[in-house]
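> example.struct
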């Protein structure tokens, strides 16, 4: 599955992100997007976001609601 672009990510969406400390294992964390931190339209490792609970990571997948 391709990594979502910035255009596909909006605040309030539920997403799966990989946290900095989980990049080696690839463990995903589920949460709701609060802020989009990456300015460019795409990023090879995923768009960086801040979740509602304050965690920061790169979006790997948008969860279909």
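> example.seq
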């Amino acid at each position: 599955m391709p990594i979502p672009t910035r255009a596909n990510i909006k605040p309030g969406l539920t997403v799966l992100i990989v946290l900095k400390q989980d990049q080696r294992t690839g463990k995903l964390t589920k949460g709701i997007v609060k802020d989009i931190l990456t300015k460019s339209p795409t990023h090879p490792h995923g768009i960086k976001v801040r979740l509602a609970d304050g965690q920061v990571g790169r979006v790997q997948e948008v969860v279909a609601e």
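> remarks
Residues 6 and 39 are 8 Å apart (CA to CA).
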